[in-house]
Design a protein that fits this description.
Order of helices and strands: HHHHHHHHHHHH
Mean pLDDT: 77
Radius of gyration: 29 Å
Number of strands: 0
Structural class: mainly alpha
Shape: flat
């Protein structure tokens, strides 16, 4: 879950919430994270879980998803395209280092009590609701979580020398982590607000039912956003095909030129000598 949340934050640091379906991106990030952490879950299971969550959160009747239906197959295909879009935005660099492991090691060095360790673990989970995992290093976030947990549990930490310097952290960055963590606990209960200009549902999406509509031309100024399976994705696929064809053509031209140059060198070198010998013999 933590790896999926980090991938989710990284993706939306480059893209807009209004352009991509948040629920489908979240499902794709969880699916990709299960592969990265070698704890693989099938796409069918992830689709079922997100479908049930959406129905419960929005007080909708729970409908059975038929795995052989057209709607389900289109949903699976859209999630696969979404996963490729996430990988493309990250340049296929998906290494994630969570602050949890470092935090536990730091707490063992500081000989923290069990109550503080449990509190720090809870705060580390809540920190993934923010973009700290994107803006700061994991060891800095771990130090900020420890500092917040120590204040909550009234556990004194060594300050002479400062304990955070032992873990190569900066006091200014640690204070920034504490500020962000205190802010999220002052906010009201989180609720989902649909901001995507397309249908924000997980199971149903207008882009799935608009396959027959003409594709948007490049350079148009229409207000409709490009979803994962609309003109934007198809344009990217078309550009990739054109680039591959151009690469093949350039490779053929390069080989042809190399072959011709070899023939010319042969005619001017050994070929010329052989021809002259043949003329002399005659």
């Amino acid at each position: 879950m933590g790896t999926g949340q980090v991938l989710f934050h990284r993706f939306y640091c480059k893209q807009s919430f209004s352009s991509f379906n948040v629920k489908r991106v979240a499902a794709s990030c969880i699916w990709l994270a299960s592969k990265l952490e070698e704890n693989i879950r099938t796409l069918r299971r992830i689709v079922y879980i997100f479908h049930i969550m959406e129905c419960r959160r929005e007080n909708l009747p729970l409908e059975h998803l038929d795995t052989s239906s057209k709607k389900y197959l289109e949903l699976e295909a859209d999630l696969k395209r979404c996963e490729l879009q996430v990988l493309k935005e990250m340049g296929y660099i998906c290494h994630v280092e969570l602050p949890h492991k470092l935090m536990v090691a730091y707490l063992e060095v500081l000989e923290a009590p069990h109550q503080m360790i449990q509190e720090a673990w809870n705060i580390a989970n809540d920190s993934l609701r923010t973009a700290l995992c994107v803006h700061l290093k994991s060891y800095v976030v771990a130090c900020g979580v420890i500092y917040t947990a120590a204040r909550r549990c009234y556990v004194p930490l060594p300050e002479n020398p400062p304990w955070w310097e032992l873990f190569d952290a900066n006091k200014k960055e640690v204070d920034e982590v504490c500020r962000v963590l205190n802010h999220i606990y002052s906010l009201p209960k989180a609720c989902y607000i649909p901001v995507c200009k397309e249908d924000g549902s997980f199971t149903m999406c207008r882009s799935l039912d608009s396959r027959s509509q003409p594709l948007a031309k490049e350079g148009t100024s229409s207000g409709d956003p490009l979803m994962l399976d609309d003109a934007n994705t198809r344009k990217v696929e078309a550009e990739a095909v054109l680039k591959s064809k151009e690469h093949v053509t350039d490779e053929k031209e390069r080989k042809r030129e190399s072959h011709n140059s070899k023939k010319d060198r042969f005619r001017k070198g050994k070929g010329a000598r052989w021809l002259s010998r043949g003329i002399d013999k005659k």
